[in-house]
Amino acid sequence: FRFLYYLVVVWLVSASDAKNCSEPPSVDNSIFVMHEVEGQALGTYFCLQGYHLVGKKTLSCNAFQDWDTPTPTCHLGHCPDPVLFNGEFNSSGPVNVNDKVTFQCVDHYILKGSSWSQCQENHTWVPPFPICQSEDCGPPENPTHGYFEGHDFNSGSNITFYCEKKYHLVGTQHQQCVNGEWSSALPVCEPAPKTEFEKALLAFQENKNLCQATESFMQRLKESGLILEELKYSLEMKKAELVAKTLL
Ligand SMILES: *[C@@H]1O[C@H](CO)[C@@H](O)[C@H](O)[C@H]1NC(C)=O
Ligand SMILES: *[C@@H]1O[C@H](CO)[C@@H](O)[C@H](O)[C@H]1NC(C)=O
Ligand SMILES: *[C@@H]1O[C@H](CO)[C@@H](O)[C@H](O)[C@H]1NC(C)=O
Ligand SMILES: *[C@@H]1O[C@H](CO)[C@@H](O)[C@H](O)[C@H]1NC(C)=O
């Protein structure tokens, strides 16, 4: 290792207030470049080849002519070390520019993203690192006004969704866990459509004219082929209620 101290301050700014700024904090293995944006003096640290930056790259010169903190640092390795939870990659030690690394997940995990990445000139990895996703699904959330049945949520398991009374299921009822995801979008429970009787009764209740309401209610029941007998009682009650109201 050669621990060379590199600090090259490049003055790109001619404005007089930028020159008033204090000396920028030194960062090992970096080049400091000063520039000006809309009258504001800024300074950017660039790590040398073989090092990558950790922290905030660009600092500004504040009202007290001091540079913001904290100062970044340049760490060994042209790009940051690869990371992959629940997986492995074939790289150890500091990364050099153009190094290529390949990724693999441990058992029961599935690779999502690219299986390789390369360290670029600009100290970044392209394409971005993949992730290792568990092939198990875990329990889904109960739908609002519904529930599911099933005990296993690992790969290949099946679950079935149900809705409470007066709600009906919209979507796929039977789902299978496939590679960490349920086979389709989870279903929802929506209010069930009203029966013909409920619709007729609603229209009856909303109609202010009792005679007309009764007439059209009977008409609707007849049209929809509903049998009146079992509804008579509630209708009588409703009628009595309305009459009482009219008399008050
Ligand atoms: C910078 O310093 C010069 C000379 O010392 C002074 O005239 C000027 O006002 C200073 N600028 C600021 C922004 O403080
Ligand atoms: C990782 O493996 C790939 C494919 O075998 C190879 O191209 C690459 O150079 C390896 N990288 C390292 C850092 O060994
Ligand atoms: C770094 O360089 C690569 C390849 O040239 C490019 O795709 C990527 O967008 C660059 N990243 C940044 C942050 O500039
Ligand atoms: C889940 O359902 C699928 C198709 O309906 C079937 O092939 C599979 O065996 C079931 N899995 C389990 C664990 O019961």
TrEMBL record:
Residues 19-76, 77-134, 135-191 form the Sushi domain. Transmembrane segments: none annotated. CDD domains: CCP. InterPro entries: SEZ6_CSMD_C4BPB_Regulators, Sushi/SCR/CCP_sf, Sushi_SCR_CCP_dom. Disulfide bonds join 47-74, 105-132. Residues 1-18 form the signal peptide. Keywords: Disulfide bond, Repeat, Signal, Sushi. The keyword Aminoacyl-tRNA synthetase does not apply. GO terms for cellular component: extracellular space. It holds the Pfam family Sushi. This is Complement component 4 binding protein beta. The lineage of its organism: Eukaryota, Metazoa, Chordata, Craniata, Vertebrata.
